[in-house]
Structure formats: C-alpha cells, structure tokens
Design brief:
Blueprint: E1 4-9, H1 15-27, E2 31-36, H2 41-50, E3 58-61, E4 68-71, H3 73-83, H4 94-109, H5 112-117, H6 134-154, H7 167-182, H8 188-198, H9 201-213
Parallel strand pairs: 1-2
Antiparallel strand pairs: 1-3, 3-4
Length: 214
C-alpha cells in the first residue's frame, strides 16, 4: 500500500479536491485515491467515517506508526510542501514565496461571487453565463491581475505564475477550468497563463481521470 491516500470528491465538480491532488502529484510520491460521490448521502456518510470534518479532500499519511489525517486543501498543500521540500511546492525566493502564499490564501478564502455564480464543471461550455454580475466581474478582474502581475514579477524561470509550478498554480487550477467554461475576457498575459495550465500534464491527468468517472 502506498504511504499516502487522498480522499477526493467527483473530479468533474470538486474544485477543492483538485488543488491538493495536483500538489501531491507534483511531489512524485506514490499514492492511492478514494473517490467519493460527495453530493450523495452515501458519499457523505463515507466522508464522515473517514475524516473529522466529513468533507473532502482528506490526506492520509501512513509513514508513521499511527496514520496522520490532514484536511482542508491549503493545509494539505502546506503539509506536502514541508514533507517534500525537494519538490519545490513553494518558490525558493523569499519574496516570491510570500506573494505565492498570499495569493493562494486569497484564493482559499475569497472570490465568493465567482464561486457561487460560476461553479466548476470540467466538461461544461457556458460562455457568458453569469459574467454580468458586478461581483463576478470584480473577482475576474482581480484574478486577471494576480495572473498578470505574478507572471510579470516572478515568472521569468518558466510559464507558471511563479516561473516553476507551485501550490499557487494548484490553487488557481479550478479557476482556470471555470475560465474555459464561461469564457470571460482576459488580458493577454492572463489568457496565456490559462492556456499554460490547460496544457499542464497534471491538469490533463485530472481531466482524463474525470472522464473515466463519467
């Protein structure tokens, strides 16, 4: 049995599950998965039995004598960054790391209008739906600025937000999916970053697995 198990919801819709799954994949560690139909009573009951919150995602680390359970997307990502420093889940540069943590936390706690109006559905195509809401428009503008400014300030070493792939990219991956679904107008640098993430091997692996769940 692998050292790690990650408990996730249906890949088509579970944005919170996608984030730590991408980070875990980046570590290169072997892991298995438990995929729950978290929108069903049976899936909810199984989630309650597995973890303290009854929510997904949940990471189980079996390397110690007593398995450790870590919940919440950002907490799991931080735990993985500490456990696998060689994976570079945060930028090496102190200033870039501070900004990467800041925008990741902003994604974790903010953008409620966008979350409510533009739900994640990997395989939907709904151009223009929900974009006329002022709160959604403000959220899109802020995310566009995050993409643009992060790339301009810290993206010299590669095509991701902070050059190399980090937790920040994992945190914004579900938003990238939403932007493909709803097609808001983006600045050139933001649109280029969206294209980079849609072509990312981790993102594609998540999508391929989602298709197999259908």
């Amino acid at each position: 049995m692998p050292d790690f198990t990650i408990v996730i919801g249906s890949r088509q819709w579970s944005s919170w599950s996608m984030r730590p799954w991408l980070a875990l994949r980046q570590t290169g560690a072997a892991f298995d998965e438990i995929v729950l139909l978290h929108r069903t009573p049976a899936g909810k009951a199984e989630a309650v039995a597995l973890g303290p919150t009854g929510l997904v995602p949940l990471l189980i680390d079996r390397r110690a004598s007593e398995p450790l359970k870590v919940w919440d997307s950002l907490a799991i990502c931080e735990y993985l960054a500490e456990s696998f420093p060689e994976a570079g889940l945060w930028p090496a540069d102190r200033a870039a790391r501070a900004v990467a943590r800041s925008v990741s936390a902003e994604m974790h706690s903010g953008f409620r209008p966008l979350r409510m109006a533009l739900s994640m559905d990997l395989f939907a195509h709904l151009p223009g739906i929900g974009l006329d809401d002022p709160g959604v428009a403000a959220d899109i503008a802020r995310i566009d600025a995050i993409f643009r400014d992060s790339r301009a300030q810290y993206g010299q070493e590669g095509p991701y937000l902070f050059g190399k792939r980090t937790i920040a990219d994992a945190m914004f991956a579900p938003v990238v999916s939403r932007f493909r679904t709803y097609e808001p107008k983006l600045s050139g640098p933001a649109a280029e970053y969206v294209a980079t993430m849609l072509d990312d091997d981790g993102f594609k692996a998540w999508e391929d697995a989602a298709r197999r769940e259908l």
